[in-house]
Fold this protein.
Amino acid sequence: MKKYKMMTCLLLSVLVLSGCESSSSVTENTTETEEVATDNILVGFSQLGAESDWRSANTQSMKDAFSEENGYGLIFNDGQQKQTNQITAIRTFIQQDVDYIVLAPVTESGWDSVLEEAKDANIPVILVDRLVDVSDKSLYQCWVGSDFELEGIKVCQWLHEYTVANEISDEDLHIVDLQGTIGSTAQLGRSRGLNEVAMEYGWDVVALRDADFTQEKGREVMASLLREYDNINVVYCENDNEAIGAIKAIEAAGLVAGKDIANGEIMVLSFDGINEEALQYAREGKIACIGECNPMHGPRVAAMIEMLNRGEEPEKFNYVDEGIFSALPDVTTITVDGEEYAVTAP
Ligand code: GZL
């Protein structure tokens, strides 16, 4: 697509700090005013941060998809998990008159006005990974990501099947929820999944705490919960980085992360299945079950842009298929809403 761009960009000190990566096809926000001649499709991608291994894999998938050889120019911005940075980046993309804006929103609320500005500038917006809560759904063309509530239900159904296989009664479960970034689609869905299944089986959810999808917060929050409660025997971590931190706290307290709930071990559940350390913990049984969360959205978003470029309309909501991992032999399949999911080795 022939585009001559007067790039009047705003230097965002946070971007310099964030160490915006640059490669042949990735441009970062700068103070220079320069003309950029490209006949490639120019994409502005506002990524929410770099908080987890999942996020890094997602970023790489997007950069690989939007390469020069694939016919794209990519302007990448790392929002450092702050909505204000993402809103500023979107406004810069509008000034740069990109062809498409791709947004992975840190949380769901607060996007109406900036997406109105993109619409007024006739720049289509595609959402990836997480959703936005806007009154006018026409503010974005389409979305691709995971069914987070289903992810949560699947992991909890695995836990239920595990308790049945090991004759552990529901009232003997005392669960803490290390939540992801509060207000993010992944946190809202996974927390809802736990709540729904816990209500169904009468599980005791002792506490919910924001662990922000990071390892350090996961460790800090778990250490605090262990000081506060002496009956925790299941930790529902809303991503693998939190789970790694929680295991460090469990072991620092002289306790054991494992499967033997009846004899004082603490069962750790998690999501993603990207971090190699977490996958090794799952192979060892330190993490009992991981709900898969697929980060490889680059090709899917590129396919949507190609459809839009041909004047076609992609589906509004596009869910990716995901599995469930465990090395424990007790549960080989789970069923949710009549759908059977095989449990596979991590
Ligand atoms: C899920 C994604 C979540 C991951 C975390 O699609 O939004 O954010 O589960 C990441 O690892 O931080």
About this structure: Residues 1-24, 29-36 have pLDDT under 50 and may be disordered. The CA atoms of residues 87 and 185 lie 18 Å apart.
